[in-house]
Design brief:
The structure is a homodimer. By secondary structure, chain A is an alpha/beta fold. Chain A has 15 helices and twelve strands. The longest helix of chain A has 18 residues. Chain A is globular, with a radius of gyration of 21 Å. Chain A starts with a strand and ends with a helix. In chain A, about 55% of the residues are buried. At the A-B interface, helix 2, helix 9, strand 12 and helix 15 of A face helix 1, helix 7, strand 12 and helix 13 of B. Strand 12 of chain A pairs antiparallel with strand 12 of chain B, so a sheet runs across the interface.
């Protein structure tokens, strides 16, 4: 079976996804009867390409964007001069791609940069795609943190898939883990370390140095963004916490409902004093049921050295699920990188294929 | 869909599986369209019951065996005096259950006590069931440690399922984790702590005391068997290692191919000296590719305190998978007990249902 993909966002993650798909093409065909064509790409600064007939040349698209050019020239509609309107937005591309007569539903692959205060523009893209009859896979935490219930119901009503494994811990499965391998098990709470930048900073502070130096080191190494405030203030972790609550605990919260304390005020001495008394300070994300409510929180906490979360250093992440039948079960991401994030999208694509 | 089950082995695990099935009946029906009847039970010392028409009364069977009685009286064939031969063995029961005209294939649930030197009688039961057209789910590591390739091929040829999630880490998924949630990812090696008794003993020794005392404590608490030599000598861990190698790395080894050192010779002083220098001694199971071969080993090793495996205390287990696309990924079992083991069989039953 061949799936037609449209990529919204073609930055580092989108481009690595495209190259990983290429590398995995034979395996996907052989093991999962999964073929693919990319028929559309929409970017914010490098134009939009759409060719629903022949599909796009991914290698060429990657080269063009890598060199700072525009994708517009790849579009069949413009080349052919067939009178089609020029595509001017991602929503436009979704609209076009969902009106291919007789074709199988297209798959939106959403990897745009997130405005974490509003979960946009990803949420609008996902909503539009599901309403237009497309399937959606995304590495973006925004839609599932801000609008999971709505989008989930929309997908169900339209008999389409909405998948987002990469929203937490990149390609290391946590949503698939609970859904596919723990049938009949109820998740009654969780705790985890799910933001890499803050864990890097805390680990660096344990070995000497102050917050500002540690952050500057991360930024120089390209690990933290130039504006790291979303990580440092706990926003990124809060968004992921909301995603976990909504999906695994059937919650209906947004990141604003997560009680949140960042690590911006932490002193190196404080971090090292914890080490001296056999503890580690980690930015812990957690949730638990409290009657009808779900209490969710992100805050720095001293953990005994033997705690699984205390042992995570640098970019390592983990989620410990508290369950009814199995007690506590954890999934741990020990390595991270662009390939891991891109792989999350590949695994979603395989999940989608298995459902079809 | 209603599945007909035959239980071979009705000890603690088999009986807890039966009661857990009862507790989960509504959820399984509603969420997975999975109903069940138990039509046969074969035990070593409490007789055999078989009623392919009405199914067996599980509560009554549990009570009878709990009180030390025999199940023979539950059999319809004997009650009805219809001239049927009396069932005299588990193999006999499998044979009978596989010849129910017009019925859906039966599901063998194998939970007998294992002779770990030969993987028996579980391997014979599984082989017979697959050859007779039954599906198989088992909490036994024997078949997958000693004969995975043969049984896997047998199952494939017969278009039947052979599932064994409980063979390693009870109901905490490691086989399903790799198969269902990491499509396209190659496991190139692993390391883990997968025997609870030895980890308990090592943890106890860290806090003072010698090997013999620690073992006696485990036995008094019912955590270790009266004959704990299979755990202590690393046999249990070697069998699980072979199972992981065969399934996750496409190997064809038996527990005899695993280089094995137990913890029998360890001194308390040695264990505590490791703690004093910031390390922990753990019985580590590991495997890695070495050209065309797979090197597999079980042996006590000093680990730095920050190592995920070093942090496991008591009955906690973990497997760290080394993969091509995701680097290292770990699954951790933080709690254990009979329900966890029984749940492994429930999850296998759901996996089977999804495939049908």
């Amino acid at each position: 079976m061949t799936l037609d993909l449209i990529l919204i966002g073609f930055g580092n993650v989108g481009r690595r996804f495209a190259s990983l798909l290429g590398e995995q093409r034979d395996r996907l065909e052989r093991q999962h009867d999964l073929g693919f064509r990319v028929i559309g790409i929409a970017t914010r600064r490098h134009g939009i390409a759409y060719d629903p007939k022949a599909g796009l040349d991914l290698e060429r698209a990657r080269t063009i964007v890598g060199e700072g050019g525009t994708l517009d020239a790849l579009s069949s509609r413009r080349r052919a001069g067939d009178g089609g309107t020029r595509l001017t937005s991602a929503l436009d591309l979704i609209e076009q791609a969902s009106h291919r007569p007789g074709a199988r539903p297209a798959v939106l692959v959403e990897t745009t940069i997130l405005d974490i205060a509003h979960g946009q523009p990803a949420t609008d893209h996902v909503r539009k795609a599901l309403r237009s009859g497309c399937h959606v896979i995304t590495a973006n935490k925004g839609p599932v943190a801000f609008a999971y219930r709505e989008l989930h119901d929309l997908a169900n009503a339209a008999e389409r898939s909405f998948l987002f494994e990469g929203a937490v811990m990149d390609g290391v499965p946590v949503f698939n883990f609970a859904r596919e391998t723990l049938p009949g098990v109820q998740v009654i709470g969780f705790r985890g370390v799910i933001n890499s930048t803050t864990n890097h900073i805390l680990t660096t502070m344990e070995h000497g140095g102050e917050f500002a130096e540690a952050l500057a080191e991360m930024q120089a190494a390209g690990i933290a963004e130039a504006d790291a405030s979303l990580d440092v203030d706990g926003w990124d972790a809060a968004a992921k916490t909301a995603a976990l609550v909504n999906v695994l605990m059937n919650g209906t919260i947004t990141p604003y409902d997560v009680r949140r304390t960042g690590i911006g005020g932490m002193q190196g001495g404080e971090v090292r004093a914890a080490v001296a008394r056999g503890e580690r300070i980690r930015l812990v994300a957690s949730a638990r049921r409290n009657g009808d409510r779900i209490d969710a929180e992100v805050s720095p906490a001293p953990l005994p050295a033997g705690d699984l979360l205390a042992g995570l250093s640098g970019a390592q992440n983990a989620v410990v699920l508290k369950t009814d039948l199995l007690g506590e079960v954890a999934v741990v991401q020990l390595d991270s990188g662009l390939t891991q994030t891109a792989y999350a999208l590949v695994s979603d694509l395989v999940t989608l294929r298995r459902r079809l």
